[in-house]
Amino acid sequence: MSPKVKNFLWCVCRGYFPTGACLSNRCVSCSLDCVFCNSNYEDITHVPIECPKTFRTWRDVNLWDKIFDTFELMKCHKFLH
Structure pTM? Predict the structure, then answer.
C-alpha cells in the first residue's frame, strides 16, 4: 500500500480527514454534501466507504479490500476502547 493511502487511512482513523461534517463541527462554513457524489451527507463514514464514486475508485485500483478491512478494524477499535 502506498504511503499516500496509508496517510489517508491514518487521517480517517484519527478523525482528521476534512469532511464537510468535520469542518462544520469546527465552525467552518462549507457544504455538507459529498464533493464526489453530491447526494449524501459527507461524513467520516460516507467518504471512504459509502460513497459510490470513491468505492469505484478503490475497487479500480485494487484497494477496496484493504480500505474496507482497515475501516472495519477502526470501527472495532473505537467500540472496544
Answer: 0.66
| Residues 6+ positions from 51 with CB-CB distance below 8 Å | 34, 36, 37, 40
47 contacts 55 by C-beta, under 8 angstroms? no
Q: What is the extent of the structural domain holding 8? A: 3-80
Q: How far is CA 41 from the centre of its chain?
A: 12
How many domains does one find in the chain?
1
- List the grid coordinates of 22: 468535520
* Average pLDDT, 10 consecutive residues per value, the chain (81 residues): 81 80 88 87 84 90 84 60 40
